[in-house]
Amino acid sequence: MSTLPPCPACSSAFTYEDGELLVCPECAHEWSANAALNPDHKVWRDANGTELQDGDTVTVIKDLKVKGSSSVVKVGTKVKNIRLVDGDHDIDCKIDGIGQMGLKTEFVKKA
Known about the structure:
It is a single chain. This protein is mostly beta strands. The chain folds into two domains: 1-37, N-terminal domain of TfIIb; 57-110, SH3 type barrels. Helices cover 5% and strands 33% of the residues. The protein has one helix at 33-37, and strands at 16-18, 21-23, 30-32, 44-45, 51-52, 58-60, 64-65, 72-73, 78-79, 83-84, 91-95, 99-103, 108-110. Strands 1-2-3 form a three-stranded antiparallel β-sheet. Strands 9-6-13 form a three-stranded antiparallel β-sheet, with no helix packed on it. It has a three-stranded antiparallel β-sheet with strand order 10-11-12, with no helix packed on it. The longest helix is centred in the N-terminal third of the chain and has 5 residues, at 33-37. 13% of the residues are buried.
């Protein structure tokens, strides 16, 4: 009898351990064993899957239009000292020349 938790994506009971990850053979979903033990702990990941922390420096990977303005955040813009938050936009930050802004983790990579 397995004591591993079911898959959070498809609820399959056939999960197995692969190093530090838990894997579902039915839907190929992988997740951290630590996250399974502590479901209240949210993990933010960049576009490459690297875990992000408060205070990290990230680089924008796509031109982003600023809503309500004609400004654009260009590819390669470095954003220092990010703050991770819950919500639609996962990152609160200040970008030079633009000001306070919210970004999505899918449009940045860890620098």
